[in-house]
Design a protein that fits this description.
Layout: H1 2-12, H2 16-27, H3 32-38, H4 40-43, H5 48-77, H6 83-91, H7 95-102, H8 112-118, H9 122-130, H10 136-140, H11 151-166, H12 170-183, E1 185-190, E2 208-212, H13 218-229, E3 233-238, H14 243-258, H15 268-315, E4 325-329, E5 336-341, E6 347-353, H16 362-376, E7 380-384, H17 389-401, E8 407-411, H18 416-420, H19 423-428, H20 434-447, H21 449-453, H22 472-490, E9 492-493, H23 499-502, H24 510-522, H25 540-546, E10 550-551, H26 569-579, H27 600-603, H28 608-619, E11 649-658, E12 661-665, E13 672-675, E14 696-705, E15 710-714, H29 749-759
Helix pairs in contact: 1-2, 1-5, 2-5, 3-5, 8-11, 11-15, 12-15, 13-15, 14-15, 15-22, 16-17, 16-29, 17-29
Length: 760
């Protein structure tokens, strides 16, 4: 295990002792969040990302070691394990290297070369390779058999023997593979006859494309691979755009590695032909498969990392808070679904409104919304950002103008329909129509994005790139880890959390989470963390892992509403005794921390890390790491992509970040793209160094392509206009135009009527 720890330590640039301590904790059943938060003194303060990397690399290297031992055992059983081969296998750092070394010894179906060896042609192949000056045809005539009736057949068998032997030698494959990775070009061309097909249009920019495979960015690699999978693009890995020149270079390199060159000897033509055959049929196919797989794996890893980072940003988006919320799921023909949720997300009321076409019951909808707001003292209004969202925003604007005091915000609907049709939603609201459940999800994610989004499969949230092309197992593993880290970073209210949210807490399984919820329903709310030990099947180990991440706001012990772990409660009691102060006077107060008597804890064996963490938590108990809530203010005059004009300066929300730029929701039902080159006045390598999903930003509209529904945006400080079709640069708007507030003729007319009704 220490060898693995040393390797991981080199990769993470930390001490081997830190990694080894972390691995030992994991083997004892400790979770990543628990280790990162409560075992800093053991790991030397490895943060959550480093602990997560240790866990992932440990699993990979353990699998690698198991495969290594299996390969050694297999070769040893064949009685072909030499000291040199064993040493090479022990030094292999990747699974690909291991499999390359194992290739000659791997059990396989009988090949042409093996048949030739069984027929006794092996000595001829060896003789001609060692003595190419000998006459091949003459020697071949002495090896005739019924299976190989003439010299031509025998020499073909010699070629098969050579080709298979060369194609299985790691000292040939490895340098060729590395050479192609460093120098290779990935050439993309459209298949003949596919140019004008409908499926080919999205790949039009790749019809004639070449790029170094080693430096190809993730999004482009995945786009090309998708084009290949859909039968639109033909991909070739070459050393030169000229395929014949590429083959010549490869054949020359293979000959050099074999230590052979054509000298006009009797067998040199046969050897040359065999080298060409080996390259074309065996090695080039192997290298192409390996490197395309490597490209895809790297691209997937980068895309999964991007997805994970975006998901983290969404989960840690600022919550609007525990307030009574009116949630609206907009719609035209089927109506707008309205639900009212309590501070804790419980459903209080629901109904369907028809303010828009074709019914156009604007006034009736306003009155019913006003009644809901007054009846339940609504403080927040969540509006889904799907169909009819901007029209519904105008409805809410009229509602607020009538005197309703509430804060309105547009909320992403991504995944809401997935939740509404899920077994969990059916269990939560068995008698509620599925359309209302979507509105509930929209309202709850405004109150607390983290608590609601954990109920949805992370892949359904839609903040990745080419997510359906990725390794679904690795994607799920990564996204689950992100959700776990986010949930435990924020903490969970024990008496309000749903089972899906509790299941993401360190140390808890879905079954334990269900048991906790059942305990609340049958026994009552938790008053102390220690009561968790009364939950069926929740033992001391699970309690150790989860307790620090669970909060009890109205409990009998104030520490239960903090990140102070129960194992540190005795330290707090010692501190109270040292300072002669009650616990209540320590929590949330910072002046006492300057008292020199606090340092006596360090003299009693408490580590500096534990001491600092304790002081920080007592100063701000239960602090939420998420930023303050803020919603974007969309332009009232821009409700459709047709309203966008170059030169407009608008506010929007980052909906997705990729490695080629960021997508921005402007409230026009089509996200615009800020290319990485347009994100900043300065060069940036990674868009995430500047923007995050959920961030409110201001952008310039650069170009609007209505036909393809593409919006080009810029976040540079200055707008640089491009000439329009008439050669004129578009002008920025200098004066805002008014627009009717709704179906009524005069702006605010409906709001005025509603205000009058409310006064009556």
């Amino acid at each position: 295990m220490f060898a693995i720890a040393q390797q991981i330590a080199v990769e993470l640039k930390v001490r081997p002792e830190q990694v080894q301590a972390c691995m030992q904790l994991m083997q004892q059943g400790a979770t990543v969040p628990f280790i990162a938060r409560y075992r800093k003194e053991v790991t030397g303060s490895l943060d959550d990302q480093q602990v997560r990397q240790v866990h992932e690399r440990m699993l990979y290297l353990q699998e690698l070691d198991l495969r290594r031992q299996a390969i050694l055992h297999s070769i040893q059983e064949q009685d072909q394990l030499s000291p040199e081969l064993e040493s090479a296998i022990q030094r292999a750092q990747t699974k690909a290297e291991l499999e390359e070394l194992y290739l000659p010894y791997k059990p396989k179906r009988q090949t042409k070369g093996q048949k030739a060896l069984l027929a006794g042609i092996g000595p001829l192949a060896e003789q001609l390779w060692q003595q190419p000056e000998l006459q091949p045809e003459q020697l071949a005539s002495t090896f005739l058999t019924p299976a190989y009736p003439d010299s031509k057949a025998v020499l073909t068998a010699v070629r098969d023997i050579w080709a298979e032997q060369w194609a299985e030698q790691a000292h040939l494959l490895s340098p060729l593979r590395q050479w192609f990775w460093q120098q290779g070009l990935l050439i993309a061309q459209v298949f003949a006859g596919k140019e004008n097909s409908e499926e080919a249009q999205k790949f039009q920019q790749w019809f004639e494309h070449s790029e170094a495979i080693r430096t190809m960015p993730s999004h482009r690699a995945l786009a090309l691979l998708r084009g290949q999978q859909q039968g639109v693009l033909q991909l070739q890995l070459l050393l030169d755009k000229d395929a014949s020149l590429s083959d010549q270079q490869a054949l020359g390199r293979l000959a050099d590695l074999l230590g052979w060159q054509h000298q006009g000897r009797a067998a040199d033509d046969l050897i040359s032909q065999s080298i060409r055959y080996c390259w074309k049929v065996k090695i080039s196919t192997y290298i192409d498969t390996e490197l395309m797989s490597r490209l895809q794996q790297r691209a997937e890893e980068e895309a999964i990392a991007v997805f994970g980072a975006n998901l983290r940003d969404l989960l840690l988006a600022p919550p609007a808070g525990a307030k009574v919320t009116l949630a609206l799921d907009p719609g035209f023909r089927t109506g707008t679904k309205a639900v009212v949720l309590s501070e804790t997300g419980e459903l209080l009321a629901h109904e369907t409104l028809f303010p828009h076409a074709p019914q156009k019951r604007w006034q009736d909808s306003l009155e019913r919304l006003a009644l809901l707001c007054h009846s339940h003292q609504v403080s927040l209004i969540a509006i889904g950002n799907g169909t009819a969202s901007r029209e519904t925003q105008q409805l809410v604007k009229d509602l607020l103008a009538s005197g309703i005091k509430a804060q309105a915000a547009l909320v992403s609907e991504s995944g809401a329909s997935v939740y509404s049709a899920s077994p969990l939603a059916s269990k939560e609201f068995p008698n509620l129509d599925v359309t209302y459940r979507g509105a509930v999800s929209i309202g709850r994610r405004l109150q607390d994005p983290l608590a609601e989004l954990v109920k949805i499969d992370p892949k359904a949230i839609g903040v990745g790139q080419y997510q359906h092309d990725l390794n679904q197992s690795l994607l799920k593993q990564k996204l689950d880890a992100v959700v776990e880290d986010c949930v435990n970073a924020v903490g969970v209210e024990l008496n309000q959390a749903s089972a899906p949210l509790l299941a993401r807490v360190a140390g808890l399984t879905p079954s334990l989470a269900e048991n906790i919820v059942q305990y609340r329903q049958q026994i009552g709310l938790f008053d102390r963390r220690e009561q968790l030990l009364q939950v069926p099947r929740l033992g001391p180990k699970a309690f150790e892992q989860c307790a620090g991440f669970l909060r009890i706001r109205q409990g009998s012990n104030p520490l239960d509403n903090s990140a102070v772990h129960p194992e540190s409660y005795p330290l707090v009691e010692q501190l109270c005794q040292l300072l002669s102060k009650p616990l209540g006077s320590l929590i949330g107060q910072g002046d006492w921390q300057q008292d020199p008597r606090c340092q006596q804890l360090l003299q009693q064996g408490v580590s500096q890390l534990s001491f600092d963490d304790l002081m920080q938590e007592l100063r701000k108990p239960g602090r939420d790491p998420r930023p303050e809530f803020r919603s974007a203010k969309f332009d009232e005059l821009v409700t459709d992509i047709k309203d966008l004009k170059p030169g407009m300066r608008l506010e929007g929300v980052i909906s997705n970040v990729t490695d080629f730029g960021a997508f921005v929701d402007l409230g026009v039902h089509q996200d615009g793209l800020v290319h990485i080159s347009m994100l900043s006045d300065q060069f940036i390598k990674d868009p995430r160094s500047l923007v995050r999903a959920g961030q409110v930003v201001k952008v310039w509209v650069i170009e609007v392509d209505l036909a393809r529904k593409r919006i080009t945006l810029s976040m540079k400080s200055q707008y640089q206009p491009e000439h329009d079709s008439n050669g004129q640069a578009p002008k920025q708007r200098t004066q805002r135009q008014t627009k009717p507030a709704g179906p009524a003729g005069a702006p605010g007319a409906m709001a005025q009527q509603l205000a009058a009704l409310l006064k009556k």
